[in-house]
Design brief:
Blueprint (H helix, E strand, L loop, with lengths): L1 E3 L2 E3 L3 E3 L8 H9 L5 E2 L3 E2 L6 H4 L13 E6 L3 H13 L4 E5 L5 H5 L10 H14 L4 E6 L6 H17 L3 E5 L14 H9 L5 E4 L5 H10 L4 E4 L8 H10 L10 H18 L2 H16 L5 H10 L3 H12 L1
Parallel strand pairs: 3-11, 4-6, 5-6, 6-7, 7-8, 8-9, 9-10, 10-11
Antiparallel strand pairs: 1-2
């Protein structure tokens, strides 16, 4: 079992923080199907410095989510440290510092992935955060800002600092910031980092779309664990499948249409609890692509759900196609 403070992982597979996805409903479902640790989507550090915002339900963890971490991003080490302290006070069990996000508007503000070019700021951010919180502090990075030699040197400096400082968990996504999500993720370089710093707890990320791939990466890469990102969107069953394969059992049968219907309806109802219908419907559509992959009439079902415009239409469509 991996231990991070009071957090114990009984399997080395956790849900990635995904902006716009890993909110309360997705976290609850992941935990129910066996994920040992879940995260918020990435949150701007300055949000936590506004008490009114932090009182909102969407910024606070629910009892059934624990253990749950908060992932934050920013550009100033002092502000990010203050933010981490605020999220710890709000009840989160660990903090994840994002230095990986490749979204252009984030990079323009010199946040997240932009800081892969600033190893000193990455290190100062972690050190300042470590000083003001008592919970575990993780970091997420990429294999470089781009494929240049200078970016590779910055990457290795960040990894060396992480090992020297005792970062609780370092996650490496196997693409550069410049690549965004294009091409195939590199798992060889993270494995090289693990060989260079064997005492550094290191998880890998990238292209984990099935339980089989997750377990294969965990057993062949030499890393300590695997982060499941896009493969968990509209697919909470992946954690149940990973757990079975990791424990040497047969992969569970795919959920029946009735079981899929139950989870989809529950997911949508949880979304309606925190969002007005006009926002809940388009928000739920983002998850339907993942859910429909398990339907024998995938394209037809997905098209029908995409055409739904009201909660009643969502309910009727799910009832019609999953009966």
């Amino acid at each position: 079992m991996l231990k991070f403070g009071d957090i114990g992982l009984d399997m080395p597979f956790i849900q990635a923080p995904l902006s716009g996805y890993t909110d309360h409903p997705m976290r609850v479902l992941a935990r129910r199907f066996g994920c040992p640790l879940v995260f918020t989507g990435v949150m701007l550090d300055k949000i936590s410095l506004h008490p009114r915002a932090m009182r909102q339900i969407k910024f606070r963890p629910f009892p059934e989510e624990h253990p749950v971490g908060a992932q934050i991003m920013g550009s100033d080490p002092a502000t990010m440290a203050q933010s981490a302290a605020a999220f710890e006070r709000a009840g989160y069990d660990c903090i994840d510092l994002n230095f990986a996000c490749p979204v252009p508007k984030v990079l323009r503000r010199e946040r997240a992935g932009y800081l892969m070019r600033r190893p000193a700021i990455v290190r100062e951010t972690w050190q300042r955060t470590r000083e003001v919180v008592s919970c575990p502090v993780f970091m997420k990075i990429r294999v470089g800002f781009d494929s240049s030699e200078a970016a590779r040197e910055d990457f290795w400096t960040i990894c060396e600092n992480a090992a020297a400082d005792g970062v609780d968990l370092l996650t490496i996504h196997g693409r550069t910031v410049e690549q965004k999500y294009k091409g195939q993720a590199d798992w060889d370089l993270p494995a090289e980092v693990k060989r260079a710093f064997p005492k550094l707890t290191l998880f890998g990320s990238g292209d984990i779309m099935t339980a089989e791939t997750a377990v294969e990466r965990a057993t062949t890469s030499g890393l300590d664990g695997v982060i499941v990102a896009r493969g968990a969107i509209g697919n909470p069953w992946i954690f149940q499948e990973i757990r079975a394969l990791w424990e040497g059992r047969s992969k569970p049968l795919s959920p029946t249409l009735a079981e899929q219907k139950q989870i989809m309806l529950e997911h949508f109802e949880m979304i309606l609890e925190t969002r007005p219908p006009r926002k809940a419907v388009p928000y739920f559509r983002k998850f339907t692509v993942g859910y429909c992959r398990r339907h024998p009439q995938r394209k037809q079902t997905m098209l029908a759900l995409m055409q739904a415009r009201t909660p009643d239409q969502i309910h009727r469509t799910i009832e019609d196609y999953y009966s």
